Each structure stands twice: as structure tokens, then as C-alpha cells.
């Protein structure tokens, strides 16, 4: 045994020990900084300061490995840019003039404002927004409903709530449950095939996802590699040759935005060639004949013309997927980020349903939160009277707004309510863990203009972001992961998180929400601090787990028992009968809930509105299909731009085009270029990507420059490289879900001194520019 192994072996099972001057703490992480995962870590602190982070070799989730973003956490936590206490705006919005206040003073200002809004306009005039799956995705909903008394919680102007929500809503309505690719993550013993039923998938379809960089939705990308080492083969659906695509049997290099058409064509092949699982379909699926009829028109020839993927590749991939047993599909964000996000998710879900890969070892498994803990976007919603719930903005989209799935208000409708005062005005906005004008809003300039008109805005974040400088009346500095006592469920396992350090006078989301809740609606906040709240959740909302926070910190991670083929065993329905938790008791290939609400019950596909075929006149001027926001390991959205390590690896915003396209435009690697369309423009640096179709451009999202001046008109250069100057807001599917973040058009030309005289940020903040 080498030295490192014997060190970890010696401390196996311990949650805290001394190592020279260091205290070592074994725990897990989860924002800030952000990530969808919650890996096991060993924190090394000296005199209360975090100095080093290692992966926990005993944690079954990440098995000792860590990404650079966790490795550089000491740099983030101890960063000199972090505000040390609450701030109150002193100058005009955007001037970056602040007065330091105490926490009590900040709370006094907020409380007074909230009570005035309650009296003058009603609680529903307050909206609360958060970013993606970070450690405040139940705290801020609870703040919104149980402290402010408003039904208007949603994501931070994320158009069409198009991050995981469309896939979730499609899965929940079709299966009555959520499904994920089975990489053995639900077993503490992981890849041990002797003591569990797990087997590696024979085929893994990586569809519109780059898990090696994104580790999205509680799925660690390294698991795919672990399965490859155990024999799994790959099919990858991606416009770019990712690391995984390069190791795949089939790489389907599709035109961005055409995933739905591709899935329908694969279903066509599988059904017409009789490659589906007849027995499973007959017993467990509802509406197969209707689906078969619908996909008839989607021949591989037709899909080739739409998707730009050769028909033989489509046929080959469909056969390879259907014949592999078991096979699994791991999908990602591009499914959601199309107006047809919902029907695309229906089509892909139908693929794993008709091939009999539902809830079998190595297939797509049904997963629920550990120990039935269910704190989510609905947490606290039942504290609202029915008449207040009925006022939720976006109520015209019942799939989204009604409690049941992960219901929320509709971001785009809230934007319109701010702009038009209809159905009623929004007066106050709470923005926590979201930086919409840098990142989340698809039409950033439009959101900038709208939010500036609000009476009162609170921003809570570990850093002073462009959003904070542009809008905040009160800024509350938020704790990072290693500064928080809390817990996490995102499927499995249940995880404890222990505070090991404290930067200045910052507070955690749990603490901030508790403090305010106790002032505004004390009956809903019978705890006094973060640990008290965590205990309340563990004791009252986690029925299968016996421990409290202290116990969970000792356990670190706890895995509940898991069973396959739950539909056969009566484990899914409240009535205890076999079957799925849907109206028909089967997987609804024909979605009867959609039919009830007047949506197309079957999957279909439509051209994005801005595309070579739907808008040929625009395509003439903007000859590239633009996809945006592919993740890179150095950043989580707009985060990590302050950190030297991340910026050393990735100093500038990059966009990609093929060598041939670059040459034709007279551009070379490293050139700063303008990306432009009929809505707006931004500048990024060219990286030539030989794997791209000559007609496709791939651009990054989330860029701002903390090293630049905070005050407007510079505003950290937030609009200068912002690809969301080129995207629309309020273009959603009939369910309210889905938005075209990854299927636009653009042109590209070199930046010159002449055409760069006016930068986008000055244009937006000083001249009311873009998105009219
Ligand atoms: N490091 C890091 N990790 C992250 C994030 C981050 O910002 N940084 N963000 C988190 C969040 S909120 C999310 S939602 C996830 C998203 O993470 P993923 O689901 O992995 O999605 P993306 O990285 O946006 O895109 C994945 C791949 O899709 C390809 N692609 C682009 N357009 C299309 C298309 O139209 N169809 C198909 N099939 N493929 C396309 C891109 O080339 C890219 O390789 O990542 C999470 N994890
Ligand atoms: N063009 C384009 N735009 C996109 C995407 C794309 O693919 N293309 N992806 C979209 C997607 S899928 C998503 S989910 C959104 C993501 O958008 P967001 O989730 O809003 O991400 P950020 O803008 O980085 O804002 C997050 C902020 O939260 C702070 N923060 C981190 N952890 C915590 C915490 O625990 N508490 C508090 N209070 N603050 C914290 C960070 O410092 C940061 O300033 O972006 C969307 N925008
Ligand atoms: S996936 Fe990477 S960044 Fe996310 S928690 Fe795990 S190690 Fe950290
Ligand atoms: Mo996301």
C-alpha cells in the first residue's frame, strides 16, 4: 500500500482528524460556488481558514476525484472581492455606491418594504427568483411562500424555465416519476456487480450532454468513463466532437435544435423494423399504436434533410441502441432549450420505454429522493391560501404552474408583468443565486431595462455581480458551501454538509431566510437557525431517515435501499397496485394528461422560428446556425470569473467555427470577432473547431469581467461578450416550457477599432440599445 492510501486507510470512517497544523473534515459540498453535484470532500483548515480541498476517496459518489472548481475553493472563499457584510445602495442604481449596514439594519429595510407592499398592493406583487439547482432551491421558495406570502417563485428570467424542467415535466406526466441513466449511483457499493443486480449498460446514449464538463443534475460525468472501462459502448448526439463523442460507436452530428426530429426518426426505425420490446410495450405502455402512427412520417430520409445527419447513421444508431441490452440514455440541456423541448423529451423518453429499458439494471431507472424527502420548488406552497395560489403568474400554463410536478410561476410572464403591469404589477424582486443579466435571461438587455423599473430589489450572492450593481437596493453577502451547516437531497444519497470556516460577516441562505421569516411569519418558522431548520426537514420531511443534523454529519452520506422493476412490485402507485403512477397505470406514450389540458399528447417536432428553413430571409443575412452555452470545466455559468486559476486556463470568452468557415470569413484562431444577428451583438474570441459542421457556430455564455470597473457604463463589461444579446425572451412552447437558447442564427466578422468604438454595455446602459 502506498503512502497516500495508507493515510486515507488510517482515517477511514473518521469525520474529523488532525494532520499537523490542519484540521481535516470529511463532508460534502454544494454551493456556492455552484455545481449540480455534491461530491465528498476533505477540507483542510488552519486557524479556521480553508487552505486545501481533496476528494474523499471513501465517498461512493466521486470516489476521491474532484474537478478544478472544487480544488480551487480556497481561492473562492478567501477572495478579496467578497463583500464582507450587507450593503445598502447609496447612489443611483448602477453607480456602485454603497453604505455598509448591519444585518439587522438590512432586515429592517426589507421588512418595512415588504409590509408596505402587503398593505398597498398585496403579497403577490413580490417575486422571488433563483438560479439553477444550487443550495437554495428549497430555501427561497419557502421564503417566497411562507415568509412573503407570494405564489410568484421561479427561475431568474430563465426563458421557458428551460433547464431540466421541460424534461422533468415530460417524464413526470408520462411515467408519474423521474428517470435517470443507471450508472450504479444508487448503490453505496457502486460497481460491485456481485451483491447488487446492477450491470453496466451495454450501450450509453449521451444525448445533448457533455457530462465530463457539466456533471449536471446530480450525475457525475466520470461515471460514464467508469462504465466504458467495464465494457459500455457509446452513441453521442452532439454538433461537436466532445471527448465522449470521439470514443463513440456512433456520433450523430446534428443541426442544433433538431433533436426531436432525430428521436422521431429513431423511433420510426425501431418500430418499423420490429426492434422494440413487444412484451413490455403490451404490458406496460399506453398509446403505442398512436405513437407508431405518428412516427411513420418521420423516415430517416426526412430526418437527414432536417438534422443534417446521414440517414444510414440514424438507422445504424437506432439499431445499435435497440439491440443493446440493457441500454441507457443520458440526456442534457439542449433538449430543454428548444421551443419544442417538451415534445422532444417525450420522444426520447419513448425510446427507452419501447425498448424495455425502464427501471431495469443498466437502463433508465426510476429514482425518487432519498427517504422520500421532498423539499423542492413547492416547499411551503401549502402555506398559501387557495385564492393566493390562484394568482400565480403563468396560471394559464397548468403543466407548469399547478402544484404536482416541480411547479413554479412562469419567468417570461413575470417579465411581461413587470413591463406591462398585467395581470398585475410586480413591485419587489428577490434575486438569490442568479445573475440574470450576465447569464440566465435569454434577452439580457430586455431584462436589464425591465428590472430597473422596479420599486425594490434585494440581491443575495457571495460576490457583487453585475446584477447586484445594476439593480440591488439591498445586497446580502451569501455564504459558500464550506461556510454552511445544511443537508442535501437530490435523489441519492442523503448528504450532510458541515461548516468549517467563516468569511467576515456573511450569512447562509438558510440563515437569511430564517431571520426574515421569523420577523414576517413566525408561525411558519418554528426554528431559530440553520441547524434548527435542517433538523426540522430531517425530522418532519424525511420520513425514512431517523437521524438529525448531528447524526447526518457523522454519517456524511446515507444510501436508502433501492429496487429495480418497481412497477412490477406495486412500489410506485399510492394504491399499492402494480403499474406506473399515471392515470392509465402505464407509461403514457400517448400522454393523457396533455390531452386533458389541450396539448398534443404525442411527440412532434417543428423548425425553430429562427432557422435556415423557417426564416430564409434572416438566414441570408445571418448564415450560421448558432448554439450557445456549452459548458466548460473552469466555470459554472457566470461564476468563477474572479478566480485566477479558472481564468488562467480560460482567460477569454470563446466561440467556435469550422476551419473552412473561418477561412472563408478571413478569420484565424484567437481573433476577436463580433457575433451578430437582428437582435443584437457581442464579441468573443475565435477558437477553430475542426469537428463542427461548416454552417454551425458554438458560442459561450455567462461572461462578465470582474477585473473591469463596476459602475455603469462599464458594469463589468456585462453585455460586451454576452451571447444573450442575440436571443429572444417570451418565445415558448404551448405549455410555457422550452425556449430557443441553442438554436439561433448569427453572422461573424472581425472586430476592428472602427466597429468597436461603442461597446455593447455602453449601448445597452446608456442608449437603451438592443432587443426592440
Ligand atoms: N462546468 C459547468 N458545469 C455545469 C454548468 C456550468 O455552467 N459549468 N451548468 C449546469 C447547468 S444549469 C446545466 S443545465 C448543465 C448543462 O449541461 P449539459 O446538459 O451537458 O449541456 P451543455 O453543456 O449546454 O451542452 C452539452 C452539449 O450539447 C451540445 N449541443 C449544443 N446544441 C445542441 C443541440 O441542439 N442538440 C444536441 N443534441 N446537442 C447540442 C454542445 O455542443 C455540448 O457539447 O450543466 C450544469 N453543469
Ligand atoms: N445563452 C445561454 N444562456 C444560458 C444557458 C445556455 O446554455 N446558453 N444556460 C441557462 C441555464 S440552463 C441556466 S440553469 C442558467 C443559470 O443561471 P444562474 O443559475 O442564474 O447562474 P449565474 O448567472 O452564474 O448566477 C448564479 C449566482 O449565484 C451565486 N451563488 C452561487 N451559489 C450560491 C448560493 O449558494 N447562494 C447564493 N445566494 N448565491 C449563490 C453566484 O455567485 C452567481 O453570482 O443560465 C442559462 N443561460
Ligand atoms: S462535480 Fe466537480 S465541481 Fe461539482 S461538486 Fe463534484 S468535484 Fe465539485
Ligand atoms: Mo441549467
TrEMBL record:
It comes from the Bacteria. Keywords: Iron, Iron-sulfur, Metal-binding. Residues 25-81 form the 4Fe-4S Mo/W bis-MGD-type domain. One of its GO terms (molecular function) is molybdopterin cofactor binding. Belongs to the prokaryotic molybdopterin-containing oxidoreductase family. This is Dehydrogenase. It comes from Gordonibacter pamelaeae.
